[in-house]
Write a structure and sequence with these properties.
mainly alpha, single chain
């Protein structure tokens, strides 16, 4: 007679948490527009700042790299000002 071995995984029970479906939640169109415009501004800022600094540091391209840094700083400051204005409202 062969002894049977219990499977320990049968005694384990994992409770899976319920997840709310957020795909049906609608936001105000004005807030959506503001959100995506800020995402675009901060993406431009990040791209221009990083590329401009790398061009200046690694290739000594001061004119083009410096221009990108200025554009990046402008986009960042504009996005930050818009963010602060939305927070006030």
């Amino acid at each position: 007679m062969v002894p049977t071995v219990d499977d320990p995984s049968e005694r384990l029970r994992v409770d899976t948490p319920s997840v709310r479906d957020y795909s049906t939640v609608d936001a105000d169109p004005e807030i959506q527009k503001e959100f995506w415009s800020q995402v675009l501004l901060f993406n431009i800022a990040l791209f221009c700042l990083s590329l401009g600094l790398m061009l200046v540091a690694f290739q000594s391209r001061w004119t083009f790299g410096g221009g990108l840094v200025v554009i990046g700083l402008f986009a960042f400051s504009r996005g930050y000002r818009r963010y602060r204005n939305v927070q006030k409202d």
